[in-house]
């Protein structure tokens, strides 16, 4: 079994939050159902799992459920074992977006408290936006992603104590020794090839046969395309077109979506495709990066939807499309191969998995910086530049960015393949694998406010 960080999220919620229902959102094939099943069976003596997508395509047992009593009756018929109560029974409603009326019912199921419920789906964001009565206050939503690089290290036998040592070096902004650097860089390259989808990783661990791994990538990519087309007739062709364009868009210098290219029509803007972008990002199969021209903390206050970049949700899918089974494109230093797109994609994947909303810097006069993230400790913006070649110290846009007094930003990270860690003119140069330690995870750090003064 692949160890996942999200296990802690599930266990903590089910142990500590008895008054809400957890909705787990994320793309298909990232391990949501497996993980919920594993945790649910471990924590509850009675565990019932219902795949509503399969039900909708099959017997439609839950299609006409309109009251909580209807649901309880169908549950009793669905399982051969008697159910308990809220203390020992967890009902898992998988792919709940298949029946939007059940999402509305979650509020009443939660109020009655007969059993514990948990739900998941690959298009929850889309479904919630279309649900007339969203059960606010009764549900909590968590986003799940493919395995990040640290989880990939666990899967390939790297111990947590060893990783903790590496993390300490990152926190001290120190370089690793040559041997450790080479080990991590090689595993990082393997992660670029295999990616973070559980089926692909398990296939790699089974026999290290990249032909089989690539077939898994092809199958999942095709599945995502089919899912992206399960929309109304007006939008489905545009959704598939945008999804298919992502790798070629990323190969362009600007790497952002040119709206006229989607349907080969001039005058198109973001608003013409807002629903399609929402579907791709809310279903978890694409990562959206919004432009910032005037960076201020927090970044959400100044993002622009006009200029958008899209990345695939998994770097393994991308390297399969770009290079197929030719692993040398990633493993060897081939001058004709520019891995910039791949490196940016994997960093976008890491940042999203670690809780960051994705932004990049775009300014007509100063140029572009790959990523901007919120630094909540310093209450500032932290720019990130991602380099895959030998010219990693050349970054005119980042230099101009740091030299702009009104921004008030005096530091940046530049990630590359190089081992050395050093600082120069506000930029800190770091090895690419250190990106796994960038985290916006707040759940592990309880923040207790001081007591109020007595009046």
Provide a concise account of the structure shown.
Helices cover 42% and strands 17% of the residues. It has 455 residues and is of the alpha/beta class.
- Judged by helices, strands and strand pairing, the structural class is alpha/beta
Rg for CA atoms: 23 Å
Could you state the oligomeric state of the chains shown?
A: single chain
Could you list the spans in which at least 5 consecutive residues all have pLDDT below 50?
none
Helix content: 40-55%
* Average pLDDT reading: 91
Strand content: 15-25%
Query: Biggest sheet: strands side by side, in what order?
Result: 7-6-8-9-10-11-13-12
Shape: globular
Q: What's the N-to-C terminus distance?
A: 56 Å
General description of the model:
The structure is a single chain. The protein has 455 residues and is an alpha/beta fold. 42% of the residues lie in helices and 17% in strands. It has helices at residues 6-16, 32-43, 52-57, 68-78, 100-112, 124-130, 149-155, 160-171, 178-194, 198-207, 210-229, 233-250, 260-263, 274-282, 315-323, 328-331, 340-353, 396-402, and strands spanning 21-25, 46-51, 89-94, 116-121, 139-143, 286-292, 303-312, 359-363, 367-375, 380-386, 412-416, 422-424, 427-431. It has an eight-stranded mixed beta sheet with strand order 7-6-8-9-10-11-13-12, with helices on both faces. Strands 2-3-4-1-5 form a five-stranded parallel beta sheet, with helices on both faces. Helix 18 links the parallel strand 10 (380-386) and strand 11 (412-416). Helix 11 (210-229) crosses helix 15. The radius of gyration is 23 Å and the shape is globular.
